[in-house]
Design goal:
The chain has 162 residues and is α+β, with helices and mostly antiparallel strands. It is built from six helices and seven strands. The chain has one domain: SMI1/KNR4-like. Strands 4-5-6-7 form a four-stranded antiparallel sheet. A three-stranded antiparallel sheet has the order 1-2-3, covered by helices on one side. The longest helix has 12 residues. Pfam families: SMI1_KNR4 (PF09346).
């Protein structure tokens, strides 16, 4: 079983070695919260997602001098549906088929997001997908793979290398 808190702490130290930001971790998400999120999103959450969020309901950073100003990197469950809607809004008009199937929960705080992409049978593909707004051209002829990149890694691998 993965020790998510330790992995997140290590990720934080790697990402913020100067100590300018405090790590903020949400409390564990309840089974009810995760079931409600599945209902809101309309698909069964992958086991790794459930394991992670059962340990902590998101995490982010806050400036040392402003501890209440949290910028969530892994969005808390209560924010995921709206965050997904916001990110998909970038390309919904030009690539509706893909927008409907993309569910980001990792927030780069710049308009980009990382999350799950569902296949035609409403099952998440292995790994996660990253939306890059800077590569998106607002053109329906653009290949979706130019701005929505498959990252063949799960949450554990993602946190270990990013």
């Amino acid at each position: 079983m993965t020790d998510w808190k330790t992995l997140v702490e290590q990720h934080h130290l790697m990402a913020h070695p100067d100590g300018d930001y405090n790590l903020v971790m949400g409390p564990p998400a309840s089974n009810e919260t995760l079931a409600n999120l599945e209902t809101e999103l309309g698909f069964k959450l992958p086991p790794e997602f459930r394991s992670f969020y059962s340990s902590l309901d998101g995490f982010g950073i806050a400036p040392v001098d402003e501890p209440s100003d949290v910028s969530w990197f892994f969005r808390p469950c209560e924010q995921i549906e709206q965050f997904s809607t916001d990110v998909r809004g970038w390309f919904k008009k030009t690539h509706e088929k893909y927008a409907k199937r993309f569910f980001p929960f990792i927030d780069w705080a710049n308009g980009d997001g990382i999350g799950y992409m569902l296949d035609e049978s409403n099952e998440p593909f292995d790994g996660v997908f990253e939306f890059n707004h800077e590569l998106y051209k607002f053109d329906s002829a653009q290949d979706v793979n130019e701005f929505l990149r498959h990252v063949p890694a799960g949450i554990q691998d993602f946190l270990s290398v990013s």
